[in-house]
Predict the 3D structure of the following.
Amino acid sequence: MDWLYILMPIAGVKIFWPGLIILGIGVGIIGGFFGMGGAWMVTPGLNILGFPMAFAIGTDIAHMAGKSLISTMRHGKFGNVDYKLGMIMLVGTIVGFEVGAQMVMWLERLGSVEKVVRLLYLVLLAFIAWMVFNDVAKKKRKDREAKAAGREVDPLSTGVEWHKTFHKIKIPPMIHLNVAGIYCSAWLPIGVSFLTGWLAGILGIGGGLIRMPALIYILGCPTHVAVGTDLFEVMISGLYGAATYTYKGRTELVAAIIMLVGASIGAQVGTVATKYIKGYGIRVAFGIAVIGCALSIILKLLPQYTSANKVVCDNISTVLVLGVVTALSAYIFVKMIQGAKAEVAAKKSAMAKQPA
Amino acid sequence: MKKLWVKFLGLITMAFVLAPKLVLAAGGGDVAPLVIVADTRKLSGIMAWWANMYNESHVEFTILTVILIPAIGLLFGVLADLVMSHIGIDLKHRELSEH
């Protein structure tokens, strides 16, 4: 069974390459579907495959850049990427990220950085999960009320509508974001991107997990546009990250390419699945992913504050993360296949009905 | 469109200049100042060439990586596109709905 293992030329370790492809497919599906890089899923996966941690982050970013490029292209063709919004947000994200990173340095000097960061991350994830499920509950209630009153349910209606309040801010310059269908003050996307960039800088994450819900709930983007635009940002930061990590000698390109084989298939599946799963389906699945991420952090924190065994907690955390990845990607894959089957069948029946 | 591209390239350049910390972007942290040397003794062919390049010049290694990653991504993406189009999936349209 030696052929199933490949020697990594830089890291010098033998890796089970089908595992890299499977991991790539899983994170590709989830990344393309939710619009995030998904480092929180990849790192434990690479760890299990025996990948040295020194190379895990760089390799992850390198494959993420390629994967996001594929997903952004596909979302772009679906009309899900608001490039104008993406570019405006890029500025705020960069500045916010720098401020966040400086703040981490300041907290480091105070000696409380890790505790603050982990707690902040947990609070944030709990808030996002609450926001998503509260939104879903509100939307369901609205639909029920509409049906009870005999009205037609608006397919574009949403539960939480905080964005309407934010759109009342009329500080010039005002901008039209045509793809997202938003008319608002330019300061709103700049402010949102600064805030999400700042949080990402403090937490040391890419920010897709924060930016996607912020685009939906604060800016008022339709779910699909939020996913596509977020991926556009992940693509740019991923390319930059790949360059800088590789320059520092921390990228195992062979592994990144093998993962990319799986991720390119997964990214297409995840992106095309957004065609068949409507906005609220995406939001619910995203909420579940956020809960999985939060639970894995709680498990990492447990040994620090209780007498829980660190090895056991780490193992449970890894199993949990990989379980969430497997379950979500399987769900998305099945929905995509069902949707594609229905579409192809509809096309065939339409062709059969056409007069010869 | 040309204007849009000029703005886009300008922003990317700015990102490279202003955001050295963006490398943290995928859940990482600062990298420890540790020099890693690839062991090329067990390698042959393209793998040996690749590992040698890593040992000799990180700049060349980086340039090639940055070119290869999007190129390979693009290649696999287009291949997946072709397969999906062949199956009969419409890859250009979708309905916008929040249901």
